[in-house]
Write a structure and sequence with these properties.
Blueprint: E1 2-4, H1 7-19, E2 24-29, H2 35-45, E3 50-55, H3 75-85, E4 89-91, H4 95-98, H5 116-120, H6 124-139, E5 143-147, H7 151-163, E6 169-173, H8 193-199, H9 201-215, H10 220-234, E7 238-246, E8 260-268, E9 271-279
Parallel strand pairs: 1-4, 2-3, 2-5, 3-4, 5-6
Antiparallel strand pairs: 7-8, 8-9
This protein binds adenosine monophosphate.
The site of adenosine monophosphate (AMP) has 17 residues, from helix 2 and strand 5.
Length: about 280
């Protein structure tokens, strides 16, 4: 596995892989890798013959009060994991390499980026869209894989790639969970032992709420309010949202008829967790 830290070296390495007839898949991450990230490389493998995994904690997608400075950084372990996984290139650019002095242009990700997580993290998805566009332009992959764990992010990136005619296919990958159902996340490391026990309730409440919505016997608003109350009573400190959305447009929907997705974000102490599930028939 090659470890690459500059755009120029990435470009050269990609050119060599292309000359060998390889097809390229990109898996962007912020590191502190876990099995959820690794599953994305497995999905990429089904489509391409060479994989680039980027690790970059992108400063422009964090708000001023958010966890950028304390976000877990475990570079050596991450490199070991990628090496064992059989990734071809680990791309770890510095902030200066990604955003040289004088760099000012940002992508505006549109109205869906202001809903759900975007309503609580203003500007977050503009930062995400911009850094992902840069990675797609730097690596010029055939495909790029993103997790459904960040369902809104996946939607926004698909839209951006279509709108900007970026010639990469975007592939969504299923959410990997711990045994008790908690969606794997780099931020789970922040949880204390007692918070970790409560954390799995987010998935359980999503499942119960999906069942109640599917049954269709109570008003959607009441069901969602009850779900939020349940989280708060179980020890979550704040619920940013629990919402039912059309799974394809991410617009609000009155009816729990597929394709729909139930999405939530809630805090345990100062740790913000997100999760989502589809509602099936
Ligand atoms: P992050 O490092 O958190 O920015 O995530 C990098 C990529 O991994 C994103 O496409 C995420 O959606 C994806 N990802 C994170 N956690 C999971 C998970 N538990 N299952 C599947 N994909 C995930």
């Amino acid at each position: 596995m090659k470890i690459i830290r500059t755009k120029q070296a990435l470009k050269d390495a990609i050119r060599r892989l292309r000359a060998e007839g390889k097809t390229i898949g990109l898996v962007p991450t912020m590191g502190a890798l876990h099995d959820g990230h690794i599953s994305l490389t497995g999905v990429a493998r089904q489509h391409v013959t060479a994989i680039v995994t980027s690790i970059f904690v992108n400063p422009t997608q964090f708000g001023p009060q958010e966890d950028f400075s304390r976000y877990p950084r475990t570079e050596n372990q991450d490199i070991d994991m990628l090496e064992k996984t059989g990734v071809d290139i680990a791309y770890l650019p510095s902030a200066e390499e990604m955003y040289p002095a004088g760099c000012v242009t940002q992508i505006h990700a549109g109205s869906i980026s202001e809903a759900l997580c975007g309503a609580f993290r203003p500007g977050h998805f503009n930062g995400v869209a911009t850094v992902v566009a840069k990675f797609l332009l730097q690596a010029q992959p055939d495909i790029a894989v993103f997790g459904e764990k960040d369902y809104q992010q996946l939607h926004i990136i698909r839209q951006m790639v279509a709108d900007l005619d970026i010639p990469a296919q975007i592939i969504g990958a299923p959410i990997m969970r711990e045994e008790d159902g908690l969606a794997m996340s780099s931020r789970n490391r922040y949880l204390s032992i007692s918070e970790r026990k409560i954390a799995a309730l987010l998935y359980r409440v999503l499942q119960e709420t999906a069942n109640t919505l599917r049954a269709g016997q109570k008003k959607q608003g009441e069901i969602l309010e009850l779900a939020k109350r349940q989280l708060l009573q179980s020890g979550f400190s704040k619920v940013d949202y629990m919402e039912l959305r059309n799974a394809e447009t991410l617009r609000p929907t009155e009816h729990a008829i597929p394709p729909v997705r139930l999405l939530a974000a809630a805090y345990l102490g100062i740790t913000r967790l997100i999760d989502n599930i589809p509602i099936t028939i």
